[in-house]
Model the fold of this input.
Amino acid sequence: MRWRGRAHVDPYAEAVLVLGLVAACLSFSVAVALANSADYPFGPGYRRCGPVRGGKTFPIHVSTKKLSCRRAKRIDREFYFGPENRKRHHGPENYNGWWTLKRYPGWRCTEGTGGGGCRKHGREALFSTL
Done:
């Protein structure tokens, strides 16, 4: 005996199944969109500016808040790759001190494992070495 035609399916069960699949697809789409819009690694309000190269070392990856990417890259390049005679260290030690830059007066820079950045009046130019 061969099966012919479509099996009888309850219309209510079919509607529930279709709505469940649509809801699952929409939930997945929203989750992917939110994950892609996350401002990793620094958080909301930060913009990625891309890598900066200097010297013969690896690049740093710059992000900024309330500052143009061009200026943020210049400040971070000066801090990370610039010569020591254009920086001044303040504080007792590297781990709890900060630097100022001769070329960018008023900017206060810090660094730690994997990154750092410079700040002035709520504007930030941050970098990551990871």
